[in-house]
Amino acid sequence: MKQDDLFGSGPNAPGSGWHGTGGGTVAFSLLEKIRGETAADRAMAFLELLHIPEGKKAGTPLRLAEFQRKFVRGALADGVMVACLSIGRGNAKTALSAGLALGALVGVWDDQPKREILFAARNRDQAKTAFGFLVGFIEGLPEEDRAQFTIRRGSKLEVEFEGNGGGLARVIAADGKSVLGGAPTLALMDERAAWERDKGDNLENAILSGLGKRDGRALIISTSAPDDANTFSRWLDEPPPGTYVQEHRPAFGLPADDLASLLEANPGATEGIGATSDWLVAQARRAIARGGSALSSFRNLNRNERISSEDRSVLVTVDEWLSAEVSPDQLPERAGPCVLGVDLGGSRSMSAAAFYWPDTGRLEALGTFPAIPSLADRGAADGVSDRYVQMNDRGELSVMGEATVPPGPWLAEIVRHLDGAEVACIVGDRFRHAEFSEAMQAAGLARVPFVWRGFGWKDGSEDIERFRRALFDGEIVVAPSMLLRSAFSDAITLVDPAGNHKLAKARSLGRIDAAAATVLAVAQGARMKAAPARKVRMAWL
User: Fold this and answer.
1) What is the rounded CA–CA span in Å between residue 71 and residue 57?
2) Mean pLDDT value of segment 234-259
3) Vertex 453: Cα angle to 448 and 458 (nearest 5)
4) pLDDT exceeds 50 at position 404
5) Is 227:237 a contact under the CB 8 Å cutoff?
6) How many angstroms separate the CA atoms of 343 and 349, rounded?
7) Cα separation of 418 and 428, whole Å?
8) Based on the number of CB atoms within 10 Å of its own CB, is 12 exposed (0-12), middle (13-18) or buried (19 or more)?
9) What's residue 41's pLDDT?
């Protein structure tokens, strides 16, 4: 094996390692040991001839776990151009992909000449991880096979193979222009969820367009993205024809230390790959104890959940919100006055209402979209797949009007949801004063007190603080609601130099209307509970 570096190449290069004789006429011995009719069978047979390059089992033969075999079969099946693998951190997804890259480089299942393999990542340093596994696998090969590789670790990270028609594996940065004109036979996109949106999409598009020239394949691997709008999430949720998807993601809302769901996200734990079950449970409990970003990061990276690990400006974290959820049969009754928080949507946007009973802490929420476009089309445009359709099926999201939601009829329908419960007041945005007045008049609610609140720094900061305090003190009780979970996952706060907060969207296509209505309702309920009871000293008869 030859190594090139920054100072030159060949046998006299400083720091060079093994040196071969070129190897162009030397047969690659491992190919003679591989049996199998399909590409997947040959790939799996080749992988199990390799040796683990690093870790506690370094030097031992590689043995594929069942979830890895499943991915290889799916990725190399006929008609598949793109294979996506989403799994918890530490389950050897990068090592598996690097092993497949080596198989593609030496022509295990594709012997077309001058094969080209790309290692793509957000930046060069990240791509070096997969490249390092490739080099590690090569270093574990028999000496006569090693001699056919030339490794370059200078300004370019490349591995050139001189046998069986030849091939080149190289690392590229997240710049689509760097691969224009290329014709890769295999592309490995590592940690796709972490790529910058614009540069990452440009790189991905350039790679995919090049793959078509030689019937190439792409392996897109990553832990879960923080949200549904991420391009990697779109690959998983809306796979185009010719795409194989394998996602190890547990159901949302489970405790972080739930063992069954931890193993669902980390199938390697039961097969000796990565962390053990005991370690995962222990780390989950440490994350729970620390809370905040530690818990969010654990859920995203180790439980493979779609949760942002950035919590410096979130309204509330997912675990803080989940602490308020109970099963429907455990909800307190609708007792006492109800505060109705309303976020009146504009043209083509969602209108949302939150119902809060301060005496019992019960919270309910409803949202409404106009009929055009359909919920399915709107979900696709907002990057949330079929989430709106699911909300509609659960009775949390309705449709009213055509291009806009009519304020008057909608508000009347919202009040009918209360089924006769007493409305203490309605809380809404003061900048929509005229629309609210007309809507309340049309809904027959002109005599109901209306509390005007702003969404700026002054009113917004107070309302957010009261809402958070009520949530942390256990004064909010709500049934599991996809509408509210979705809204709070997109809700962040902007902070001014004085430390005041106001509500904002985490992404431009996010829908936080239900979260805004909830903050208004709960904050007003907290003010009502804190107000001293007035004693009537005199009454007119």
Assistant:
1) 22
2) 90
3) 160
4) yes
5) no
6) 11
7) 18
8) exposed
9) 94
Domain residue extents for the chain: 30-247, 259-311, 322-530
User: What are the residues whose beta carbons fall under 8 Å from the beta carbon of 126, sequence distance 6 or more?
Assistant: 190, 191, 194
pLDDT, tens digit (0-9, with 9 covering 90-100), for 491-537: 888 887 777 888 888 777 788 999 999 999 999 999 998 876 665 55
Q: How many residues does the chain have?
A: 541
Contact between 169 and 130 under an 8 Å Cβ cutoff? The reply is no
Mean pLDDT: which of 8-22, 219-233, 311-325, 446-460 is highest? 219-233
Q: For residue 384, what is the DSSP state?
A: -
Residues 6+ apart with CB under 8 A from 454: 429, 430, 431, 460
- Quick: pLDDT tens for 17-31: 333 333 344 567 778
Strand locations in 258-411 (E) = 338-343, 351-357, 362-369, 397-399
* Whole-prediction pTM: 0.71
SS3 percent helix, strand, coil of the chain, rounded to 5, is 40, 20, 40
Q: What is the pLDDT of residues 442-495, one digit of tens each?
A: 777 778 888 888 878 888 899 999 999 999 999 999 999 999 998 998 888 888
Question: Rounded distance, CA 505 to CA 487, Å?
Answer: 9
Decide if 30-247 and 322-530 have a common fold. Answer: no
- The number of CA neighbours under 13 Å toward the Cβ of 507 is 18
Radius of gyration of the chain (CA): 29
Which among 399, 401, 411, 421 is positioned nearest to 444, based on CA atoms? 411
3-state secondary structure of 356: strand
Residues 302 and 10: their CA atoms lie apart, in Å, by 43
Q: Tokens for 429, please give them.
A: 């945005």
Q: Give 322-530's CATH code, choosing from 3.30.420.240, 3.30.1330.60, 2.120.10.90, 3.30.420.10.
A: 3.30.420.240
Greater confidence (509 vs 12) lies with 509
**CATH match of 30-247 with 3.40.50.300:** yes
CB 106 within 8 A of CB 147: no
For residues 2 and 367, what is the distance between their CA atoms, to the nearest angstrom? 64
Q: Are 384 and 486 in contact (CB under 8 A)?
A: yes
CA distance between the termini of the chain: 105
